[in-house]
């Protein structure tokens, strides 16, 4: 039997459905077998907006575990459409002349403007915060803060950027998304909010009671944003039930590079450290610094003539408390904000290391498990002005260049341990398998 015939036979097998215990009230998961390499996504009009959606979706489509951690027939229309689209992209032959074969209506409904008029951060917020975060698969994106004080410091950092919505890290906003009674720790009443002590755990709602049940019944209406956010962590499906705790975590971080000019180069790890108020690290005696200009560009469009110093990249961390995490997310999603408005994007070079060790972000650095992240993929600008994805396919080692229907094998590294790009707007890192598999 040929390989193609075997794959066709495997795809003809009905989906496997995993049903959790009845008492949990959680939805079953569907499992399907995707193709071994990415499939193209149609863009008949060859528009930049559609290519941006296609490129972003390709990064998500080719992550491990997506095919086995989505709910089976969820009651929410948008999540159901997303689940069906994933299955179609994974298993059906692409139709290059039919955009309706892969439709993004489930995402458009969560955008305030058409896709070609919204900041890229708004697109990621709709995809991760409104859709993916409501599934078991979405649990892999959540960034968990070690203490309430660290969380509040993070929120204050977002508040200082209200004049620039594109710089916010996540669309989930605990200050307005649900009633005040749901924003206090389990050991405090609504009349006595919890303090900001260093050792306090992230704020959780009070245990289920008559008052809290009434809040659920009042606010779990079809059009209420609260409906999607009263969900359980690490569950088979993030579907709201009475008494479930409200836990708010960002699903991505936004790194601002709008102040950098075209010849400059800035490193993702340095941006991440500055964003979370951690000191920069430098290496000597042959090893390049985090913002070294000695490396050779791997992007044919990039030829940097100077490099940004760490002191100019962001505000010094000495004026802020370090923001630490209680655990590392399985998937670290990073948005690269190139402009505070769409009229003048920065053309600086963004350097993405293939490997990043994020042990320094953990509050308890003695934790057992992997802390090494590997670059899984990124979205950047193609020569024709459209957007493309450079991504791996699940656990595979090959890199693929995905420009709408055109999918080819590529090598963005060219023998080096980093990628440099002038047009990157989104990158995603994946925690190593030993920790992911233990989830």
From TrEMBL:
According to the record, the residues making up region (Disordered) are: 183-231, 295-320
Where is there biased composition of kind Polar residues? 183-196
The record's annotation in InterPro entries points to: Papain-like_cys_pep_sf (IPR038765), Peptidase_C19_UCH (IPR001394)
The protein's matches in Pfam families, at most eight in alphabetical order, are given as:
UCH (PF00443)
What's an example Gene Ontology biological process for this entry? protein deubiquitination
- What GO molecular functions are on record for this protein? cysteine-type deubiquitinase activity
| Low complexity: compositionally biased ranges | 295-317
- Membrane spanning stretches: none
**SUPFAM superfamilies (UniProt xref):** Cysteine proteinases
Q: In what residue span(s) does the Peptidase C19 ubiquitin carboxyl-terminal hydrolase domain sit?
A: 307-411
What is the protein name given in its UniProt record?
Peptidase C19 ubiquitin carboxyl-terminal hydrolase domain-containing protein
- State the organism of origin: Synchytrium endobioticum
Please name the taxonomic classification of the source. Eukaryota, Fungi, Fungi incertae sedis, Chytridiomycota, Chytridiomycota incertae sedis
């Amino acid at each position: 039997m040929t390989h193609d015939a075997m794959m066709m036979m495997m795809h003809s097998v009905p989906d496997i459905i995993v049903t959790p215990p009845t008492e949990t009230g959680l939805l079953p998961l569907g499992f399907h077998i995707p193709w071994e390499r990415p499939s193209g996504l149609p863009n008949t009009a060859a528009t930049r907006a559609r290519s941006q959606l296609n490129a972003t979706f390709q990064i998500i489509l080719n992550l491990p575990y997506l095919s086995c951690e989505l709910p089976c027939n969820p009651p929410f229309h948008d999540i159901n459409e997303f689940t069906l689209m994933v299955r179609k992209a994974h298993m059906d032959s692409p139709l290059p002349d039919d955009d309706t074969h892969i439709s993004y209506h489930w995402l458009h409904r969560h955008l305030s403007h058409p896709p070609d008029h919204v900041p890229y951060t708004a697109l990621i917020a709709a995809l991760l915060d409104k859709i993916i975060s409501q599934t078991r698969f979405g649990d892999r994106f959540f960034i968990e803060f070690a203490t309430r004080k660290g969380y509040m410091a993070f929120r204050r950092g977002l508040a200082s950027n209200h004049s620039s919505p594109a710089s916010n890290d996540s669309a989930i906003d605990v200050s307005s998304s649900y009633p005040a009674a749901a924003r206090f720790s389990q050991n405090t009443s609504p009349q006595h909010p919890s303090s900001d002590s260093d050792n306090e755990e992230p704020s959780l709602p009070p245990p289920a009671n008559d008052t809290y049940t009434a809040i659920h019944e009042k606010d779990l209406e079809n059009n209420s944003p609260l409906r999607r956010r009263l969900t359980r962590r690490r569950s088979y499906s993030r579907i709201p039930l009475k008494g479930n705790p409200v836990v708010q975590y960002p699903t991505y971080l936004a790194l601002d590079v709008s102040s950098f000019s075209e010849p400059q180069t800035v490193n993702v790890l340095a941006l991440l450290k500055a964003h979370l108020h951690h000191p920069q690290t430098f290496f000597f005696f042959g090893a390049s610094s985090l913002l070294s200009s000695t490396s050779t560009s791997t992007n044919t469009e990039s030829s940097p003539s100077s490099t940004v110093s760490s002191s100019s990249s962001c505000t010094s961390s000495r004026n802020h408390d370090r923001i630490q995490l209680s655990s590392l997310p399985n998937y670290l999603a990073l948005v690269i904000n190139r402009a505070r408005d769409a009229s003048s994007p920065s053309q600086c070079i963004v350097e993405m290391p293939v490997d990043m060790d994020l042990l320094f972000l953990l509050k308890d650095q003695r934790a057992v498990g992997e802390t090494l992240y590997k670059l899984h993929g990124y979205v950047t600008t193609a020569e024709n002005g459209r957007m493309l994805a450079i991504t791996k396919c699940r656990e595979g080692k090959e890199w693929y260049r995905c420009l709408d229907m055109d999918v080819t094998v590529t090598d963005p590294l060219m023998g080096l341990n980093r990628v440099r790009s002038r047009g990157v707007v989104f990158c995603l890192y994946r925690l190593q398998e030993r920790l992911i598999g233990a989830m």
